[in-house]
Every structure is written in C-alpha cells, then in structure tokens.
Amino acid sequence: MGLWGCCMESKKDLTIVCFSGEFDKLLAAFTIATGAAATNRKVTMFFTFWGLNALKKADGRRALGKDLLSRAFNWLMGGRKQLPLSRFNFAGISPKLMRGMMRKNNVAQLEELMEAAHALGVRIFACEMSMHILGVRQDDLIDEVQSVVGVATFLNESENAHIIFI
Amino acid sequence: MKHFLDITHETCPMTFVKVKLQLAKMAKGEELEVLLNKGEPLENVPRSCEEQGYEVLSVEPTDNDRYLVLIRK
User: Fold this and answer.
1) Residue B45: which domain range?
2) Is the pLDDT of residue A39 over 70?
3) Cα B68 vs. chain centroid, distance in angstroms?
4) Closest residue of A to B23, CA-based?
5) Alpha helix locations (H) across chain A?
6) Which of A29, A97, A136, B25 could form a disulfide with A131 if both were Cys (CB 3.0 to 4.6 A apart)?
7) pLDDT tier at A59, thresholds 50, 70, 90
8) Which residues of A touch B52 (CB under 8 A)?
9) pLDDT bracket for residue A14 (50, 70, 90)
10) Do B50 and A4 touch (CB under 8 A)?
11) Active-site positions of B?
12) Number of domains in chain A
C-alpha cells in the first residue's frame, strides 16, 4: 500500500475552468474530468459565464433572472439541451445529429458523463461574479453544484493542480 | 464474492470510470472480473486499480483481442 500511496501522492490535482457553453467543449471538459477522477486524481470544475448553461436545472429555455436583459439572455442561451456545437451548429440541428452519432458509437452522452463525474467525487463550483451578471441563482443550478465561489477560492483550491481552460 | 463487468462495448473514459464505480460499491476483499479490449483499457484499468491499492490477481487473454482481468479490492 505504501508504494501506491506514494504514487497517488505524486499525481497532480486537476482543475478545469469551463468558460465555454458549447456542447463539444463541455463534452471534452467532462471527459477529461471523469477520466482524471477515475485514474485517481482530485478534480475540480469551475463553471463561469457560458459554461454555467450546462449546470442549469432547466435543460431547455427559461427566462431566469430579475431584469429584462438577464431574462432575455437566459432564454436565448437555454440549458443543457440547447448547447450549440462550436462549429457547424446549423441552428441547433448538428448537436442533435452529434448526439445520435455518439449513441451509435457507444460514446457516453454529456448527461452520463456529468452523472459519472458526480459519482466519482468531482467538485463542481460555480462562479459568483458571472452568476451575478447573468442573474442566475444557486437555486437555478443543479444540486451537484457544491458551492458558488469567487476567483480567490478557485485559485486556492487549485494551488497544486494543473489548470485547464476550456 | 466475485463480481463481473464487461467494458468491451464502452469507450474512453467510461471504460475505467465504470470499473472505478463498480469497485467503489464492493467490500474490501471482494473480487471483480473485468472483460476488456486490448489497447487503452488493458493498459490503464489494471494500472489505475493498482494505484488505488487494489490487487490485480491475473490478466488472461480470451478471444478476439479481449482480456479478463481479475482484481481484488
């Protein structure tokens, strides 16, 4: 056990900043997160700006927020089921085709990866500042969000981690 | 008690994710037999199990480039 304990300790933690709100980029983020957690790394995901869309409880379109602008923004952005592809989105048709191709090739769907990330103990933080701008409250986000934090906490929690920005 | 998991139809990262989650459900001392493909799963599943302090008891080739890996938690 000593030997393996020693090897585990030498593994760096991993923090993924999920800034983008595109389906393919979030898929990449969750693939890396679950892969790293399954191979014994401590993983933290920090969601900010467009990335927050993946964490909304409402996976379709909903006008969240208090003022007109934030309500319009949130309705336009939508949730997990509305995420566009970063290329060849074709008004939202391509993500549906992509999901079909993934199913056909037995590749895990975004929801499946998110579930696995939670089961593997990946920590999910949401950015306080961007939630404030977009009028999104923690109640609007899925229960898996561990806490709403600022950049200082994110950096403190990532002191011994590789940081990947997606 | 011996458990069995077939990950030959899974792709990265669900191959080792499923093994890790299955092992998490098991009690210490129980065994898990994993059927996996050669390549990435064969290289990574036994290694990440050993890193966690689990014992890889055997790695046996079967048919069609598939392997049976026996792990004790």
Assistant:
1) 2-72
2) yes
3) 8
4) A38
5) 2-9, 23-38, 68-77, 93-104, 110-119, 128-134, 151-157
6) A136
7) confident
8) 4, 8, 40
9) very high
10) yes
11) 12
12) 1
